[in-house]
Design goal:
Elements: H1 4-23, H2 28-53, E1 59-66, E2 73-79, H3 81-104, H4 111-130, H5 134-152, H6 159-190, H7 195-203, H8 210-224, H9 233-236, H10 242-250, H11 254-263, H12 265-268, H13 272-293, H14 299-319, H15 323-351, H16 356-359, H17 365-368, H18 370-384, H19 390-406, H20 423-452, H21 468-476, H22 499-521, H23 524-528, H24 538-567, H25 595-600, H26 604-608, H27 613-661, H28 666-685
Antiparallel strand pairs: 1-2
Helix pairs in contact: 1-2, 1-4, 2-3, 2-4, 3-4, 3-10, 3-15, 3-22, 4-5, 5-6, 6-7, 6-8, 8-11, 8-13, 10-15, 11-14, 11-15, 13-14, 13-20, 14-15, 14-19, 14-20, 15-18, 15-19, 15-22, 18-20, 18-22, 19-20, 19-22, 19-24, 20-24
């Protein structure tokens, strides 16, 4: 293979970003071609590289960048089936996002800088995927964090965007500090930062601190991939433009942490404690995020919590020792989650709001956005994990991996002994993944029914016309503090979505529907990865699908029950063609027939607010740090500056006293001199 091909994959989007920044403002007509063409060409080159590399092959190439006095830093490529598959996903999603953005941000005056940052974001993810040196990988890792800060805060004139971008940056950096030390420790133990050398050292047992190294790396993964306890930044990041959400959630940033653990899984297999920690982290993330998603009113926040939970699935598969299943779900999820966010953008464009409750008050919304309606339905079925869509196969692969690990037969595929994976990790993942499958089906069904199928006029019911038993429901949903992450609405709801916002949906719908069947029919996908089986076992297939069906039926039954009760209250008819206002938490928009409240019961309020994790962090960390900052400011201004001002004042007073003695009279000077001489003589004589 010509090494210029894989080198061009990250280079072209980076060059496109530089060109867009350079000429975007001066020649706006060039901004869109410069945004789309380099990324699209990189996507094609990534596919060409994958085809040329083939299955079961690997390519390593490196040139030394600089000596360090220790392990050298090299500009290295490490290509195999994992990097090939993920690079194709990154290219596909990034191209769809760039095309979609040309219409979604058509009137945005800052579009050139936005497009340049998306291209740079894409280049950084390509660098992470292709890099064969951990220090160079770290460069791409940090560039993605910087790009996310600017993209989430694209609408910096709003307080939500500013705070969300700062929160995302700080929380991910909190994980990046131990992550950096983990890389240094790994390089010191292995004697190299090269990925093949690190993996060889792990296989040969030459790593001196595997548990400490793995835990330090997991801190960075928790931040970047939004795993508990560093998951709180991702729902708030929905204040950024919707195409950015699709890119972050599907193919870049959050996928980088999972990819890193998959790449370095032999290191983690040396530490059973680290795998149990990863399993617990994944379990809490999966279940907690699914409960939160079931209580959200903001469409994008539902999808954000969904992403957190699905990343928990991937982390759980890694804790069970099967990186094939994890990466399979990463790619499958990347396709349907990008589709969900882009379809959500179309719905938001038509409804003029993020609020599901507001959408439920718009008659015939699904007829106004037929492309989004059908493609979002396809993506939600894949998210639920029903056959034959891709989400079914990848979810079942995770459950199968957990089942084998729980039985002491972990599917490590030759990366380590099956006994390296504690059975406790397998049980933790298996139980939590099953419960999450049930909850995922429930919140996906709730979202679809409330947004597109609420009975006409039911959601406009006023409390006074409802039965007494339902009035508390309406009042409780009037919360001023309900989490809501609106972005600036730049679209005209009277204008139909342009083709650039519609055809990417159908492009992404193809892998959403067919990736699982196509990948497993001839077993080319397992051959591309580690060669293990990705076919679901009969037990997990029946159990997983059964739980998903139960979740769908439970949500549907709760929805029918809630809407039936509303029907007895003679709700006021909805105003035809009404478009709710955007710009704040929808305090007047009420989901009066919300099945989430019925299903969650007393957990609904805590789940809506993320179980108070943000408040806890504010009390434990933000307030003490703020108090410490206030103390430092007081000491600096009232103590240190007082001494500084005092020393200046003392010198000034001394100068004034000396100046008084300077009279200009020679006789006075001579008299003082003689007096001093006499005084000194007396002192010497005595």
């Amino acid at each position: 293979m010509n090494l210029a091909l894989p080198a061009l994959v990250p280079a072209l989007p980076a060059l496109g970003a530089a060109a867009t920044l350079a000429v975007g403002k001066k020649a706006p007509g060039l901004a869109r071609p410069l945004a789309i063409v380099p990324v699209a060409v990189s996507a094609v080159l990534a596919l060409v590289v994958a085809l040329q590399l083939g299955t079961g092959q690997a390519l390593d190439a490196a040139t030394r960048l600089t000596p360090t006095g220790g392990p050298d830093i090299a500009l290295a490529l490490h290509l195999d089936g994992f990097s090939s598959l993920i690079s194709v996903l990154v290219g596909l999603v990034a191209t769809c996002v760039q095309v979609y953005s040309t219409a979604y941000l058509k009137e945005d005056p800052r579009y050139p800088s936005y497009a340049a940052l998306v291209s740079l974001f894409t280049a950084a993810m390509f660098l992470v995927v292709y890099s064969g040196d951990l220090i160079v990988l770290l460069v791409g890792w940090e560039v993605m964090g910087l790009c996310s800060y600017f993209l989430i805060g694209h609408h910096w004139e709003t307080a939500d965007a500013r705070s969300a971008s700062l929160k995302a940056f700080l929380v991910t950096k909190l994980g990046d500090v131990p992550f950096l030390f983990g890389i240094f420790l790994l390089g010191a133990d292995a004697g190299s930062f090269r990925v093949p050398d690190v993996l060889a050292a792990a296989t040969e047992g030459r790593l001196g601190h595997p548990t400490l190294t793995a835990l330090l790396l997991l801190a960075g993964v928790a931040g970047k991939s939004a795993q508990f306890p560093l998951h709180t930044w991702l729902p708030d990041a929905m204040a950024g433009p919707t195409p950015v959400s699709a890119l972050i959630h599907a193919a870049t940033m959050v996928a980088a942490g999972i990819y890193l653990v998959a790449r370095l899984l032999p290191v983690f297999l040396l530490s059973g404690a680290a795998l149990v920690v990863l399993a617990v982290m994944a379990a809490v993330t999966m279940i907690g995020s699914a409960l939160c998603a079931l209580a959200q009113d903001d469409l994008k926040r539902v999808l954000a919590y969904s992403t957190v939970g699905q990343l928990g699935y991937m982390a759980g598969a890694l804790a069970a020792g099967d990186r094939e299943a994890s990466v399979f779900h990463l790619v499958s999820h990347g396709a349907f989650k990008a589709l969900l966010f882009l379809a959500a953008g179309v719905v938001i464009h038509a409804a003029h709001t993020n609020s599901i409750s507001a959408m439920s008050r718009i008659p015939g919304l699904r007829k106004r956005v037929p492309d989004a309606y059908w493609t979002m339905g396809i993506a939600l079925v894949a998210l639920v994990g029903l056959p034959p869509f891709s989400g079914f196969f990848s979810k079942e692969a995770v459950l199968t991996a957990a089942e084998h690990a729980a039985n002491g037969e972990a599917l490590t595929n030759g990366l380590g002994p099956a006994s390296a994976v504690p059975q406790a990790a397998g049980w933790i993942v298996l139980i939590s993944a099953g419960l999450t499958a049930l909850l995922t089906a429930a919140y996906a069904t709730r979202l679809f029914l409330l947004a597109f199928h609420s009975p006409a006029g039911a959601a406009a019911a006023a409390p006074q016309v409802l039965p007494a038993a339902d009035r508390g429901t309406v009042t409780a949903d009037h919360e001023n503090g309900a989490p809501y992450s609106p972005e600036l609405d730049e679209a005209d709801p009277a204008t139909a979505e342009p083709p650039a916002m519609r055809w990417p949906l159908w492009v992404l719908a193809v892998p959403t529907m067919g990736f699982g069947v196509f990948g497993l029919r001839s077993d080319w996908l397992p051959a591309l990865l580690d060669g293990g089986s990705l076919r679901p076992s009969a037990v997990t297939a029946v159990t997983g699908t059964g739980l998903a069906v139960v979740g769908v039926l439970a949500a549907y039954g709760a929805w029918r029950s809630a809407t039936a009760r509303l029907g007895t209250g003679r709700p006021a008819p909805a105003v035809a063609g009404r478009v709710p206002e955007q710009g704040g938490a929808p305090t007047a928009e009420v989901i009066v027939g919300d099945p989430g409240r019925t299903l969650l019961g007393p957990l609904f309020g805590p789940a809506r607010h993320g179980f108070g994790v943000d408040r806890l962090y504010h009390a434990l960390f933000v307030r003490p740090v703020g108090a410490a900052a206030d103390l430092v400011r007081f000491l600096d201004r009232e103590v240190v500056e007082t001494y500084v001002r005092g020393s200046g004042a003392g010198a000034n007073l001394l100068g004034r006293a000396v100046r008084l003695a300077q009279t200009g009279n020679a006789q006075t000077y001579l008299s003082a001199l003689l007096a001093a001489v006499v005084l000194l003589a007396v002192l010497v004589a005595v």
